[in-house]
Amino acid sequence: MEYIKNKFFQVATRQAAEYINLRNNYSDVVLANITIGDVMSGMKGIPSLITDTSKLDAQEGIRYRGLSIPELQQKLPCICGEQEPLPEGLFYLMLIGEAPKMDDVRNLSKDWAIRSNVPQHVFDVIEALPKSARPMAQFSTAILSMATESFFQNAHRVGVHKKYYWDTIYEDVMNLIARLPRIAAYIYRRIYHNDNHIDPDPRLDWAANLAHMMGHNSNEVKRLLRLYMVIHADHEGGNITAHTAHLVASGLSNPYYAYAAAMLGLAGPLHGYANQDTINWLYDMIDELGTDEPAEKDITKYCRKTIREGRVIPGYGHAVLQKTDPRFTVQKDFADKYIKNDKMVNIVNTLYKVVPGILQATGKVRNPWPNVDAYSGVLLSHYGIKEHTFYTVLFGVSRALGVLAAMIHDRVYGFPIERPSSYPLQWYKDVAEGKITPKIK
Ligand SMILES: CC(C)(COP(=O)(O)OP(=O)(O)OC[C@H]1O[C@@H](n2cnc3c(N)ncnc32)[C@H](O)[C@@H]1OP(=O)(O)O)[C@@H](O)C(=O)NCCC(=O)NCCS
Fold it and tell me: How remote is the CA of residue 274 from the centroid of ligand 1, in Å?
């Protein structure tokens, strides 16, 4: 779909000129004073990355190119009769910065269908791993093995001028996104459905095809996966997944390497694995309390016990957000609309009543409110996707949309290699005690 690529390039060229203007004429402008506290809190809040695809506001939550999730639901094209936007439209929005028309979305769906053929050796590599290997290990290995397909790698090898890098990065990104549903579904059917694989259906949209290949063909699951793919797609540039992808790609590693590395970051329990942790923790609670309809007071006791044991309550808290995550709210709205009387959903709703107060009472949790992971697992489980060790793979498929769109931007802008400074602990101590005055650039 060359017209999408051309349209992107027209917009991106203007943006790249802005970048060069800022870099050349305003590089002395001071953005922030950095304290020892900033460094020791994981560099939170320090403006140090450029990411156009989305921005996370601590109070409001995520906005993709300025649009909140409810606004996306209004402005992005949907399949006729459905209310959840197509993730293809979100990708277009994040890439180009304008809401697409239905034709753009259809064309993108078709383009990804054409690009979706996964080379046989990728399946062979997956097969070489034991089935017991974690789904995220299988997923990232498969992606890495697909780097044989990288056009960018070849372009770099033959000495293509760097101002054209974005072109082959674009091709790699589009191919990679197109193939992710097939790879994810293959791993899913391999591990949980006895290798009984399902061929793709090129007539379906990207998310619906994923549902289909996983063996979940109902309209409800397709609708849920469209929602899921949209709300997990991006969370500005500083989260572990996006930052890893950006960092690795800044060394001109190809998109397959950079995205595989990002997936290994997503696999951590404080990040994407929290969607599995949440559901594990809920099942442990049900086991320990001996009922799947626990009373509010027993849920409260269980939460307090989790804290006493020095563990976190998964699905609560966030490094940036200070309010209930709108990605939680939109899933709650979905459950309120489509699901009546699911016992796990009821527990999640009770947790929403009790957990914030419990976390606030610890006096140390900056954000006691739920995040996206507090709800996603119970929705998937309700609709029959009960294999919760797979949930982080679904998150990973979705997150490709944002981080890979941003990777194309990175090369249009021509961002430099990323290289922040580090100092020994003693240096910070010496600065704190006034023995050294740090050189302010
Ligand atoms: C997301 C998360 C990693 C953010 O971490 P953070 O920015 O360091 O959060 P805070 O500054 O609020 O942490 C301050 C303290 O509160 C604790 N805390 C934060 N969230 C907590 C939670 N959900 N349950 C219990 N304690 C929590 C932290 O562990 C930390 O304790 P410490 O000082 O003893 O180390 C954290 O809230 C968390 O672990 N949540 C649960 C996992 C999760 O849902 N991750 C998915 C995020 S989308």
Answer: 11
Distances, alpha carbon 368 to alpha carbons 107, 268, 324, in Å: 42, 20, 8
**Non-local CB neighbours of 208 within 8 Å, separated by 6+ positions:** 79, 222, 225, 226
Q: By the 8 A CB rule, do 292 and 284 touch?
A: no
Distance 325 CA to ligand 1 centre (A): 14
Quote the ligand 1 centre to 64 CA distance (angstroms).
25
Contact between 249 and 62 (Cβ < 8 Å): no
Query: How do residues 240-280 score in pLDDT, each as one tens digit?
Result: 999 999 999 999 999 999 999 999 999 999 999 999 999 99
Please report the atom of ligand 1 found closest to the CA of residue 320: 7
- Amino acid identity of residue 143, one-letter, is I
The structural domains of the chain, with segments of one domain joined by +, span 1-30+49-419
Residue 234 is a catalytic residue:
no
How is residue 271 annotated by DSSP? T
- Pick the catalytic residue: 156, 193, 197, 271? 271
pTM: 0.95
Nearest ligand 1 atom, CA 374:
44
Closest residue by Cα to atom 18, ligand 1, is 365
Tokens 């929290």 belong to which residue?
Answer: 274
**Atom 11 of ligand 1 has which residue's CA nearest to it?**
366
Q: Taking a C-beta distance cutoff of 8 angstroms, is the pair 76, 108 a contact?
A: no
- Average pLDDT of the chain is 96
**Ligand 1: residues whose CB is within 6 Å?**
270, 274, 307, 312-319, 359, 364-367, 371-373
Residue 234 and residue 53: Cα distance in Å, rounded? Answer: 8
Which residue type is seen at 245?
A
Residues 6+ apart with CB under 8 A from 395: 232, 266, 272, 275, 376
> First CA to last CA across the chain, in angstroms?
45
Q: Is 373 a catalytic residue?
A: yes
The closest-lying atom of ligand 1 relative to the alpha carbon of residue 270 is 45
**Is the distance from CB of 387 to CB of 261 less than 8 angstroms?**
no
| Model confidence at 315: pLDDT above 70 | yes
List the catalytic residue out of 212, 232, 246, 318: 318
Residue type, 343: K
Helices (H) and strands (E) in the chain, counts: 20, 2
* Token pair for 71: 């606004």
What backbone phi and psi angles, to 5 degrees, belong to 67? Answer: -100, 130
How far apart, in Å, are the Cα atoms of 356 and each of 316, 350, 352, 363? 8, 11, 7, 11
CATH topology of domain 1-30+49-419: Citrate Synthase; domain 1 (1.10.580)
CA distance 199 to 176: 18
